[in-house]
Design goal:
This protein has an eight-stranded mixed beta sheet with strand order 3-4-2-5-1-6-7-8, with helices on both faces. It has helices at about 20-25, 40-55, 70-75, 105-115, 120-125, 130-135, 140-155, 175-185, 190-200, 200-215, 215-240, 240-255, 270-285, 310-320, 350-355, 370-380, 380-420, 440-450; strands spanning about 30-35, 60-65, 85, 95-100, 160-165, 260-265, 290-300, 425-430. It is elongated, with a radius of gyration of 32 Å. The chain is α/β, with parallel strands linked by helices.
């Protein structure tokens, strides 16, 4: 039924997602927020960070999303690859909050500098192919996110790391980073490029030329000799580091599967967002990743959910058509002329009397007709009644539309819970405005931790 209030039915059949026990559990070391774009992942991650820090955790929030919302909401001018402390946190027991944004190239540079001698590191960093690779090669961002997460966890400076992932399905691409990296390093192309460096001299270049001739002629024309030389030099310099890349990526992947990690899927109560959420849930299950539950964000509610959309719309139509209005003599009493009647119109209904203030109802005493002064004082001017009727009808139509939204959100949510009844869910009520400061993040945190998210 269209006017059914949201919050009934589907949620009763699934477990409630309790956020505070997750934040308070010292065994929880990593929380990963994933979901499609525009559902509030960044805000959710930041709100979780604020709440956890103010409950005594030492927290760092890592965002992979290049948007600046996280920095702005935390009162920081800009975020970079270095964790920055957030001021204004009312932490207890040493609780602190730091925030950072992944700088893909800088993270790659740090790996090279940490795992190569100075001369080799300089050769790699100055290599044109490396500069292109580290600045935006497909898959590099996801792998570097894995590297940064592993670095933060290894430092042990923070006891909780919250990861805000990129939008859309690419949010889970970092799960594939170790596999893709392994395939890349073990692939024929890399082996082909590594062989000349191992053979050396003209024989090596002859081997390279023979090998490249085995590949498509089109590839050779597109890449060019100079580019192939840069790639060969890069591969030769990176040869001893490839094993370390794979080892660290595999270790971080296992870390994501460990009991100390909790994945939160964030979605809005909309069809496309919940379809993506279902994809994330299924993918995490397939990968053996620990899913904590679903955060259903920006859920609408109403304090008058007992009034259905149909009833509200019907009442609005009655008011607009005048069936519920006072059909008095117009302005006959405005200039001291007695009104011809003070009896209520035969069109008036019980719904009218409940919708209108008592001061606007017709007088039950016919002895004294109102004068102009009395009309203005007690608000029985028919024009005022008509304005009130129009205003009330408009509010009723707004309420009817709100109830339609609530019903649609409930149906969409219930389809998800029917498909995934094992997934714990919490709903977060929509705020009247955007979140742009710590106070707003605290408000979101309170809604996250309330029963069913305070919706």
């Amino acid at each position: 039924m269209e006017g059914t209030a949201a919050g009934a039915g589907g949620l009763d059949a699934v477990p409630a997602l309790e956020i505070d026990p997750i934040l308070d559990d010292r065994g929880t070391r990593i929380i990963v927020c994933c979901g499609s774009g525009g559902v509030g992942k960044t805000t959710t991650a930041a709100a979780l960070g604020v709440r956890a820090a103010e409950r005594g955790r030492r927290v760092v929030v890592l965002t992979i999303d290049p948007a600046r919302r996280l920095a702005q909401s935390m009162g920081i001018d800009a975020l970079d690859n270095t964790p920055r402390k957030v001021d204004g946190i009312k932490g207890s027991d040493g609780g602190e909050l730091h925030a950072m944004m992944l700088d893909m190239k800088r993270t790659f540079d740090e790996i090279v500098e940490a795992h190569a001698d100075p001369a080799r590191a300089r050769a790699i960093l100055e290599n044109p192919f490396y500069q292109s690779l580290s600045a935006g090669f497909a898959g590099t961002q996801e792998y570097m996110a894995m590297e940064k997460l592993g670095q933060l966890r290894a430092r042990d400076e923070w006891d909780l790391i919250i990861v805000d992932t990129p939008p859309s399905r690419s949010a889970l691409d970092f799960l594939d980073a170790p596999k893709r990296l392994g395939s890349f390093l073990d692939g024929k192309f890399i082996k082909l490029l590594m062989a000349p460096a191992k053979v050396g001299g003209r024989a090596g270049m002859k081997f390279l030329n023979v090998g490249m001739s085995m590949m498509s002629g089109t590839l050779g024309k597109l890449l060019g000799g100079q580019f192939l030389g840069d790639v060969q030099t890069f591969v030769a310099a990176m040869d001893t580091m490839f094993g370390g890349f794979r080892t660290r990526a595999d270790a971080t992947y296992r870390l994501l599967q460990a009991p100390g990690t909790a994945f939160l899927v964030v979605a809005a109560p909309e069809r496309d967002a919940l379809r993506e959420a279902a994809y994330f849930v299924e993918r995490l299950a397939a990968e053996g990743m620990p899913l904590a539950g679903l955060v259903l964000n920006r859920v609408h509610g109403s304090g008058a959910a007992g009034l259905s959309a149909e009833r509200a719309r019907a009442a609005a139509e009655n008011l607009e058509e005048g069936r519920m209005g006072d059909r008095g003599p117009g302005k006959t009493g405005l200039r001291g002329v007695p009104a011809t009647s003070s009896e209520p119109s035969h069109h008036a209904t019980a719904a009218d009397s409940s919708a209108r203030p008592s001061s606007a109802r017709p007088s039950a005493a016919p002895e004294a007709a109102p004068t102009a002064d009395v009309t203005e004082e007690h608000g029985t001017d028919p024009d005022t009644d008509q304005d009130l009727a129009r205003l009330t009808a408009g509010l009723l139509r707004l309420h009817a539309e709100r109830m339609r939204v609530l019903a649609r959100e409930q149906r969409t949510r219930d389809r998800f819970t029917a498909l995934h009844p094992e997934v714990a869910v919490t709903e977060v009520a929509a705020l009247p405005g955007d979140v742009h400061d710590l106070a707003g993040l605290r408000a979101i945190g309170e809604r996250l931790s309330s029963p069913r998210g305070g919706s």
